[in-house]
Design a protein that fits this description.
CATH superfamily of the largest domain: Nitrogenase molybdenum iron protein domain
Largest sheet: 4 strands, parallel
Structural class: alpha/beta
Distance between the termini: 69 Å
Number of strands: 12
Bound molecules: zinc ion
Radius of gyration: 20 Å
Low-confidence stretches: 1-34
Length: 328
């Protein structure tokens, strides 16, 4: 039995630029998938399958009692590298609706989303900000015309995605559209406070130390929103190789500008960043490991970063703590 009526009316053609295995744009090949207007007509709660925990939290908060949310990726998973398991296909098949982050974050699942979009409602939570050509979207030159997928690090931009999710759910399940909208606004009010917290806290870092060095280029939106310069040792995707020449430039920059600390990431081997520490110390600059940041995934259930708000606060507090050491 189909729980969702499908293929009522193709209304939108989405072009999906695919990303090749190494995280680099794949010659801009475009695959076109058909988007249908979908109406949920099954039994509640609506079975919602999400990719990351960050997306799952949005669906849980906005969907409330009307949805049952499952996340494919656990807290320690790197979404750039995640390959769907056989059991994931089963979960995808059983879901009424699929939500993913998009902008090629889940690079190895792109083909799968194109396939599922033909079968059931399948949404990227970032499709609204793309459709509106949101000015906050980053298109780093090294990503050749594609967007940086790490939009949740600008809390106000992620909040826009939360609002879009309420609209997507409201269209899918119009009898509860008002609930979704109300839930979204409650969540967005919390996010507005969180956004202000980030701004206030980052401003406490001495201006010359407002430089964030991490394992991969995940914090571009964070830097843009809260006023801190960002250097990743790897590219936008954690899959990109670390470039030793780039590492040396970053080392020189750290020493020249007396940056007190660099930061490791929860889903990437710590040695990626720790490799900077010894050469800097050898050159006479006592560089510290400022601590672990959650770039692409929430923390474990028993950590202080198991929720989106907890994750963002943990990151901000760690960054501010590491960089406010008085320079010598
Ligand atoms: Zn990432």
């Amino acid at each position: 039995m189909n729980r969702v009526s499908k293929f009522l009316l193709p209304i939108l053609l989405i072009s999906v630029p695919l990303v090749s295995g190494c995280g680099q744009p794949a010659s801009h090949s475009h695959e076109v998938s058909q988007r249908t207007t979908d109406t949920f007509s099954g039994d509640y709660p609506i079975k919602v399958l999400c990719t990351t925990g960050i997306v799952a939290e949005v669906l849980q908060r906005v969907g409330g009692d009307h949805v049952e949310v499952t996340a494919l990726m656990s807290y320690d998973v790197d979404p750039h590298l995640y390959k769907p398991l056989f059991s994931d296909i089963e979960k995808l098949d059983q879901a009424d609706v699929v939500f993913y982050s998009g902008l090629h974050l889940e690079g190895r699942m792109a083909d799968l989303f194109v396939q599922y979009a033909r079968k059931k409602p399948t949404y990227a939570v970032t499709e609204g900000i793309i459709a509106r050509d949101d000015k906050r979207l980053r298109e780093p030159p090294e990503f050749e015309g594609m967007h940086d997928p790490h939009v949740w690090h600008d809390v106000s931009l992620w909040s826009a995605c939360v609002h879009d999710v309420a609209e997507m759910l409201g269209k899918l399940d119009s009898p509860h559209a008002a609930d979704y909208d109300k839930n979204a606004h409650t969540y967005m009010d919390e996010l507005a406070e969180l956004h202000d917290y980030c701004k206030t806290e980052v401003a406490k870092i001495p201006e010359q130390s407002r430089v964030l060095v991490t394992a991969h280029d995940a914090f571009g939106y964070f830097g843009q929103a809260y006023g801190i310069e960002v250097f990743g040792l790897k590219g936008i995707s954690s899959e990109a190789e670390k470039d030793l020449e780039h590492q040396e430039e970053v080392q020189k920059m750290i020493i020249a500008r007396k940056i007190p600390a660099v930061f490791v990431e929860s889903t990437i081997a710590h040695r990626t960043v720790e490799a900077l520490i010894e050469p800097c110390r050898a050159a006479g600059w006592d560089l510290q490991n400022g601590g672990e940041l959650y770039a692409d995934a929430l923390g474990a259930a028993d950590s202080n970063a198991s929720t989106y708000t907890g994750m963002v606060k943990h990151n901000v507090d760690t960054i501010v703590g590491g960089l406010t050491v008085a320079p010598e």
